[in-house]
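Entry 14. Two folds queued back to back today. First construct below, sequence then structure tokens.
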Amino acid sequence: MRLTTLIIAPSRESARELAQELRSAGLDPDWQHSTDLDSLNATLAALDIDLILCRTSTPNLDPGTALRAALAHDPPPPVLAVSGTLDAARVHDVIPGGPAGNTLGPEQDGYVCLEDPEDLARAALRAVNESRAREEQRRREKLLKFRHYFMEKAQEAILWVESTGRVFYANQAALGLMGADPGHLPRLNLASLLAAQSAASFPTLWQELAQAGGKTWSERLLTLSGETRDVDISADHLLLEGEECAVVYLRDTTELKRAKTRLEQTLREKQAVFSSMEDGILTVDTDLAVLDHNQALTEVCPMARHIAPGRDLTAPAHKDCPCITALAATLGSREPVRESHVACSAEPHRRLDLTATPLMADEHTFAGAVLLARDVTRLHDLEQRIHGPKGAMGMVGNSPSMLRTFDLLTQVAQLDSLVLLRGESGTGKELAAEALHKASPRASGPLVKVNCSALSENLLESELFGHVKGAFSGAIQDREGRIHAAQSGTLLLDEIGDLSPTVQLKLLRFMESKEYERVGEAAPRQADARIIAATNADLEDRVSRGLFRQDLYYRIKVMTITMPPLRQRPEDIPLLCRHFAAMFAESFAKPIQPPDEEVMRIFLRHHWPGNVRELKHALEHAAILCPAGPLTPDHLPPELLRETTRAGKRRRALNQADITRALNQAGGKKARAARLLGISRATLYRHMERLGMDL
């Protein structure tokens, strides 16, 4: 036996001798040496000691002190005092209070033995074994106390029964359910408590339980007062100290079943009302399982065409349905939930007003939820025709990125600060500049636009600042510049990144002092104009390459607004399509309609390098070719179809990283993530299931 042993002896050689005596008797001590109380406590703190041997001849540490130090630890290791004599006086000197003989009593974990290998080994084994037995007993008693505590505190009724059905333990919940008290326990038998069982049939039930190891069923329980309760029963077959027994768990379902019965009766009484209502009605229980729905719901909500009473609506296929989301919110909060003009996940063009309210079986019993769904598509379309699908300030978009852009434009519009509009070509920087001007205090003044990349350096300088007669060849008369024309208004400098260094310097001076000089004139002039700059260039890169002045760069980036590219806001494509289709229908005097579903799928798959401008021109091309009705793929530009086809052929199989990235960009919304990936939501679910991702 291997023992971690602490040997207290006058010297290490003396300790080694004791260890050798144990080894010669067949034990295997892994020993440490100690000579004083400090080293003893340090070793006890660092190691799990099985046994302490203490020579009575150790001058600085006697066995009694060692025993007291050992008892301060949990669990305390036994202390074995090793002496050359065992007379009574000597024993009392070694460990005060100890009896004569070879032990001081197991309750103290203190022992005395002779300096003899066999006596030493025998005493060591006895001390260690008795100490371990006491520790195991303490552990079992503590475990039993914990088990008894938790069973008594459990809200679920728990019974322990023998194979004959006799109940030998019942917790407080079980006694309450049966209408019993602890005094009834000797007379309780499970066979007589279950309505469907008897003394004759109970052995069959027990045999089924023993063979299966467990059993779950529903039953009616007969209480001692004669009342009948509905219960769900779960039993586990066990062997306890070699005898068969079972742990039986009882869950009282009486009130739940009564509530369901009352609910079913109420629903039958109100079925006629349901059938006559034009609004869709759906009722679910607390587990989101369908109780009933009226016929009108199938007209309002496409999802309702595929459900029936008992259908579980927690399945992933229903996860993004706004109707189910509203019901789930009410079940979770037990409060009404109202949503207006919600887009139907199955038919995005359909708009619904939803009201979900708690369903009460009686005044105090919560039994589920009721959904009232009203189709407001025509009202929504009318509002859209009246007000337009515009998010803010005359711009189209309802995506999160555009809503953030609208917020920034609204905040900046009322200020006179310089604004830098950044973004790819075709994202609407010029439209944003117009929106800023129209919403600003300078709206009554002019908005003057200058394309800095369209003119040479000399012409641009003259265009901006003006010139005097004779300033250069062809300057036959004085001419005011665009800065003068923007007096009390707004000056838009488009593609400002293409300015020459000379013009950059003069423009910086005007921004700082509001002063400028016409070409060929030395007299300074002043102008009061707000400046909005726009660019699709990488200004930071141009600054690092010396193509753009750093001081001008920091001057124009007081407030930067980045217009998001169309590929990052695919949810705005249907809005833009309806907007442009209506615009071209009016412009061309044609009864054309927004694109059909196939065109929308093509648009959602396209990368749109030209952004909104490219989409507008594609729809204009389609509107020219379309005589009437919805725009179809036959009306689209051939190059758009070819590019979409090539992109489809190049598309590789989606992996987990692609899907995770799309879900993060979509804020966890699978419908939007599917649009970002250019696939349907059903296809996204299939890919997630294939990759083992959580649905």
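Second construct, same run, same settings:
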Amino acid sequence: VADSVEVRVAEMRRAHPRWGAKRIRLELLRKPVEGGTIPAVRTIVRILHRQGLSAPRPRKRPRSSYRRFERPGPMQLWGIDIVGGIRLVDPSTGVVRDAKLVTGVDDHSRYCVMAAVVERATARAVCLAFAQALSRFGVPQEVITDNGRQFTGRFGRHGAGSGEVLFDKICRKNGITHRLTAPASPNQNGKVERFHGTFRPEFLDGAGPFTSVEEAQAAVDAWVHEYNTGRPHQALDDTVPVTPSQRFTPVPQAERDVLEMWLPPTLSAVTSPTSPTGQDLAPSEADAQMSRTGVVDGYRGGSGPVGPFGPRPGDGDPVELDLVVPPSGNMKLGPQQLWLGPAHAGRTVRVWADCDVVHLSMAASRVKTVRSQLSVADLCRLRANGAVPAGPSPLPRPEQGEAIELERVVSRTGLVALGPRRLLAAEILAGRRVGIRIEPATLQFFDPDTRQLLRVWPNPLTREQVLRLRGARRAGPPPRPSSEPVTVQGRAASNGVILVCRQRVNLGAVHAGQIVTVAVSETSLSIDLGDGDTRVVPRTTTLPVRNMKAFRPRAETG
């Protein structure tokens, strides 16, 4: 080896103590020494050892024990993580505080797609940095992250029942597969961790403190630009110098135009400035703009102030959005909880909501309707977090004068709740789900499966009260009265007389106090006296059956 080459190798090592033999050889290939040949990697190792510039390393886990993976092309997988170490100083007080860096690396090319400085790594700040990267480069097929609460609700306060976080929603809406590493396994996201291994000693150890997030972001942008375009990466090719930018290709604009990217309105409305190096500037300014527009933390929209939305046209209009049923089966829509049960865990539910009613649909079929507890402010929060203007209601409102139907469960006392009123259905129907057909003058109770008429009562509700009832829908065909006799029970009095539909029937003193069964038809009463004895008498009244149970026996007195 020529002396000039050995001197050049020693100078490069002293100037860059972290450069190994492979990196030094790549730099010599880029800028060769005049009159000398490029030495092999093993030759450079011997030069460093001879010059006293190499230190022995402790024995590590063998490379063969690691399972290495790499996607065959760019934009197939991004590794995303959060790293600390950025120092910010207050010029007036001299107080130093720590900031975070949201980073992302393309798996195939090692291109840094995201390096955003944030004062606090909140879910919103992370999603804003992610949204900026999606806007610049397009949508990757997959992302891999650790189990931080900014990325997943898997290990939240309520476990898997915490529901979907905003980062997961952005991935789901754009068809991105979100992969999670196993707990305490950073090696499964090794590309971005290796990026941190370079970023810490080459930038963090000698940079800062910075007086502002913008100043820190500008310095990070300059370093990332050099990393992407001017620094060969050994993992790409250890024989010839290849930079990440030579391997990386964003999604073509033609493909982006075919399928529009989805972002929450509060994220897509923010345009992040771009530095001369081509990297996004700090999301703190965008965060401030989002705060001024009234964005609330989180995705479900139930916490935080509304902000300066103010009453605007359309604020109270219905909205639609998708929710994923958590393992608990209990979803959260702003301040309201929606129960579907664990049997539907993992399914996507389409929610139609306004200030009066909330409809839940799965596979274009309505499965549940509940009274809404949402205010206009809650609808604004939902709209700010991704809800869209609603289409037609799954249960269209009936027109003026048209009969409507709804379903209720009869209480154990025989009552049903209709708006502000609690009305009698029948004690015999206690615990039963019944349909109610509401006409201007009558309430018709019927069986929802057979549409058999069960009871008819006067209608005490006004039209305005009827239209506000939960679950109201256009009425189907009128229920049909039963063609079979109605079976009732009655206790004969001490003189042997029973009263059925206000018709007195004398059974004789021998049957005094006996409970008998009566089949009531339109024209006759068939009375079963026991022991096979049946008496049939013609009906003399047209009143409907009101009580189907026998009289309670009197308590004995001693």
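Quick look at the second one. The mean pLDDT is 82. The two ends are 125 Å apart (CA to CA).
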